[in-house]
Amino acid sequence: MRNVLDWHVRIADLGRRLLWLQLLWVAHTLLGAVVLGIAPATAAVHAVLRRDHMAGEGWPGTAERERLPREFHRAWRRELVPANAVGLPLVAGWAFVLLDHRLLGTTEVAGAGALQVLLWVVTLVLMCMSATVWVLQAHFAEGPLRVLRRAAVLVVARPLISLGGAAVLAATACLYYVVPGLAVVLGIMAPAWVTTALVWRSGILPRPADTSDGEPTAASDGAPTPALAPSR
């Protein structure tokens, strides 16, 4: 009976925290006029979830934390430029893919079948990268091109993890389509929490040498890339 009660308390605490994060995500997306706010707000969500996992494993410097709104806002400000630099290429990639899908569906061209297969492969790779890139962005203090490259390497080196992230996005989209009200309650939190847990527990994220402040840290020289790092 005690174990059941503990589980109920943990689920309630998690639900309350995710709801707070969802409200903060909406507020900071609006703070950036949506266009410039959505990417850093998404990055801030993953930064907070990363620190949750670090605190759960007892990493140095994560026991004492700021209040959630302050921690989120600080992460949002830090990611205002870097996150947009990561998000814009992804948006451009999705625009290109969706436009090509529409053109192939309405125009007869030679080799349309082969082009359609190739386009679906590109779409799947883009979905895999979109699912995991924010987890990597939260963990590494690197430029946008290196973070995007890491996400692409992860698709090749650890395809099951990337496909798992893509499956989470697809399942969430289908669930929100069937039950639209869930999108208001869960929003980005459901896929972000599941994907972060998936990538974190896989052991592909190397532990930075200095985690005293919990900030994203670039991999040290000679360290393996996250996609190739051995499991903890």
UniProtKB/TrEMBL annotation:
InterPro entries: DUF624. The keyword Ligase does not apply. The chain crosses the membrane at residues 20-49, 80-97, 117-136, 148-171, 177-200. Residues 209-232 are annotated as: Disordered. It comes from the Bacteria. Keywords: Membrane, Transmembrane, Transmembrane helix. This is DUF624 domain-containing protein. The lineage of its organism: Bacteria, Bacillati, Actinomycetota, Actinomycetes, Micrococcales.
